[in-house]
Amino acid sequence: MKTRQLQTITFILIFFSLTLGSNSLAGSLKEKMRARQPKIIDLKAKGTIGENNRGYLEYRDNKEPRKGLLEAENQDRGAVYIAIARQQNTSAEKVGRRRAAQIAERAPAGTWLQNVKGVWYRK
Fold this sequence. Notes:
The protein is an alpha+beta fold. The chain has helices at residues 2-20, 24-45, 67-88, 92-106, and strands at residues 49-51, 57-59, 112-114, 120-122.
């Protein structure tokens, strides 16, 4: 399970490099997101959070033990989606939805995901 998650992280980092280049903003975002990954992986494994159909993280219950963590991650994901959308002449929403599909495909068993109709399921 951890191998699959590390592959996903690597994919995200490569994606960053290719789409945002090597400027300091891209480097800063990559480092912040990389630093959060162990905590995010842990919360996913516990079933506390899941990946929604828009490419963002959401809490699966009313408990929010690391609310700031998810807010920061989602804000950075949004910045990445905007940068990619500008480069591809599309919307950040479309980029996020494509990313959500990629995440769902690569997610390890047990991960909470949201399908295109908004229904949550456990892979």
